[in-house]
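Morning. Coffee machine broken again, so started the prediction first thing and wrote up yesterday's gels while waiting. Chain of 294 residues, entered below exactly as on the submission form.
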Amino acid sequence: MRPVNFDLDVMRSFVTGVELGSFAKAAQKLARSTSAISAQLKKLEAQAGSPLFKKAGRRLALTDTGEVLLNYSRRLLSLNDETITAVSELKLKGWVRLGLQEDLGSFLPTVLGRFARAHPDVRVEARIARNGDLLSRIENGSLDLAVAWGAERTTGYQEVVADLPMQWIGSSHQYLDWRAESGTPLPIIAFDAPCPFHSMATEALNREGIPWLLSFTSSSLNGLSAATEAGLGYTIRTALGLQPGTELLQAGDRGLPALPSIALTLHRREATPDPLTERLSNIVIQAIRSEIVY
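Came back before lunch.
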């Protein structure tokens, strides 16, 4: 029996559609017709030998086969793109400056490793910082690209990498068992102001008439995590980069209000950057999206 050879072009359409949440958007991004994308998906299902999607209410969700294929497709496309860059006659040299939120610190070795293998003559200067610092450095030109929370800026180029639900987070050791019906103020652990997570969470609490108090503030994510693990209160982040000793809370079980989503956005000063910045931007986006469960 001849082995099946998956078509990387078809896999790219599949991954792009899932990540954008729409195959119509994928068609637009890949400069294809929607009928061409549909034909590619049928081909991919035939090669996989099983449906890739199932109905979940009014939308489509991935089947188990689809989830497995998505993971492998991302890995194959990443290796393909890295190979093309590595064997290209264009030898990029120079340096590029990258800024990331603390929540994304775990991605840094992966991002820098992939970039260094493809471009050994390029130096990357990386900075882990909070939103305000990252965005001001983009504006003054001391960073070439940065990934920050929110999409409220109106200057420069920005691309939403993902839209993630905000989550209440508590200790995995269950030191704190706060309930809304108790009437006691909810102890909140948050970054020093300004912090979009703190602002949106307290707005949600105020709408529901739930009292709260700021029990602990910190200028670092490690400080927030340590205080949360110790049971000093609940903090608010996303599932991305969840720290050891903490866990996502089932908000409804405690009477906590539902929280909105927050955009994770890539920022650059220029819409059309130099090749180094463009390449690193693509690697950063792929690394983040590969960690997100759709």
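The longest strand covers residues 157-165. Going to sketch it on the whiteboard this afternoon.
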